[in-house]
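Sequence only, no structure available. Ideas?
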Amino acid sequence: MFKKIFFLGLSAGIFSAVACIVYSRVYIFALGADFSKIINPASLMGINLLACLLAALGYWQIKRMSGTKAEIIFNLSFTMVSFASIVVPFAKALPLSIQNPELFPGLAVPMHFYPALAWFTLKPWFLKEGA
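Reply:
I predicted one. C-alpha cells follow.
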C-alpha cells in the first residue's frame, strides 16, 4: 500500500509542478510581471514534489491510524493546509528591485492549490475507492 501511495505522491508532485510552471509562464506572458528571481521552475519543481510527498506520508499515516475515516480526514486536512498556506505570498517581503509587486499574490496564491488538485485528480488512478 505504501508503494502505491508513494507513487501517487510522486506523480501528483510532478503533475502539479508542470501545471505551476505552465501557469507562471502564461502569467508572465499575459501581465509582463517577471518574478523569476523569486519563483523559478526549479523552486516550483522542488516545492511541489515536497508538498505531494509529504501529503503521501500524511495520507499513509492517517490511513494506518483512522481506517475508514482516513479519506475524509486527509481531504479536509490537505484542503485546510492549502488554504492556510496562502498567507505566505501576502506576507512575503519582495526585494525593492521587483517591479509590480502587487501582482505577486496573483501568481503565487493559485499555485498553493495545485498539489491538492493534482492529488485529488490522480488518486483514482492509483488507489481504488476505499483504499
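Residues 2-126 form one domain.
Hope that gets you unstuck.
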